[in-house]
Design brief:
Elements lengths: L13 H25 L7 H21 L3 H11 L11 H18 L3 H20 L10 E8 L5 H11 E12 L4 E10 L5 H11 L5 E5 L7
Amino acid sequence: MSFDLQDLSGTFSTADIILCLVLSFALSTLVGYVYRGTHRNVSYSQSFVQTLVIIGMIVAIILLVVGSNLARAFSLVGALSVVRFRNAVKETRDVGFIFLVMGLGMACGARFYTLAVLGGVVICAVILVMSRFDMFHLNVQRQVVKAQVPSGGDWTPGIEDVLVRFTTEFELVSTETIRGGALTELFYTVRLKKGQKPGALVAALQERTQGQRVAVLTGYDQTDL
């Protein structure tokens, strides 16, 4: 019985491995800096950016391993299918960056180096341009109003009377009971009239809710709740 080690890396050289890893690292790092520079919400995660770099390099290695061998490809699909990710992606934009580093890693692993460099630079430039000029921005700022009222009565007419005075439009989103049914919490989406302040709206609503808790969330569409 022979115990000799067999080298299976004949399809690529050591130089290919080094170039593939270095280029995938450089391009994934570029994507990471672009992500950090264009991120606007409060949910920035350093570990997510580091994960982008790691994913790019790992995918490059996987493509080197697979090469043009279908058996290896199906084996890797079966092995990776057991992986489960339980962290929810907070923004759809984050999914785009994940696919970007995966695509760049695949291009590096397949040794399409020119495609990887040009594709990475062009896509990063497009992201920077969209961020710089705030493309596709819809300049409509809405607020969320949460008002707690005692259960057992119809408090919506009084609350909506206040909303008519302070807002240009409002819509009841949901109604739910809290504290074992002792209170009812009403959720409205509203647009404040020009010159009206959230604090004044809160004070006016508390007069109609017997001093129960009232909250106005401003800019909720750009903040993780």
